[in-house]
Amino acid sequence: MEVLGVVVFWLNVVILLFISNKLRKMMALEQQFKQIQNNIAVLVREHSQVVNTILEDLESKIEEAKETMDMLKETKTKEEKKAGLPPGTPKPMNVSSKIIYLRQQGLSVQEIAEQLKLPQGEISLKINLHEMIKQNKISNFT
């Protein structure tokens, strides 16, 4: 019976060592977890500051853009007043744009020439040039 008591004693010692080893590892893991948690909190704060800075920057740029748009509107209105046009009047189309617009509306070369009081050859030439530009055969058309 004495041997059995010694075996039980040593078995208890081994189990106790095993448990204490696991407990130490668990405590170390808990410390690591707390450190990771703190690191995450720091990163969140830092990224929050970066995001806030970016948002402030964007808001500033939006405000600048609004001011620029207001200035452009004022300038446009002043130019329209100088030209004697009511505010918001669209700019007149150039001849080439008129030709293309009328062609897209289904008018023939002859009808466009009569309406714009231009030779049919000029109308045909501008229409052909426009088509070539659309097909990327030439680079500019005015």
Layout of helices and strands, plus pairs?
Blueprint: H1 2-83, H2 95-104, H3 109-116, H4 120-134
Describe the structure concisely for a colleague:
The protein contains four helices and no strands. The chain is mainly alpha-helical and 142 residues long.
Oligomeric form of this entry? single chain
Average of pLDDT = 87
Proportion of residues in β-strands:
under 5%
**Alpha carbon gyration radius:** 41 Å
Proportion in helices: over 70%
**What is the overall silhouette?**
elongated
Count of all domains:
2
Distance between the termini: 114 Å
Count of DSSP-assigned helices: 4
Q: What is the count of β-strands? A: 0
From N to C, what is the helix and strand string?
HHHH
Main beta-sheet annotation: none
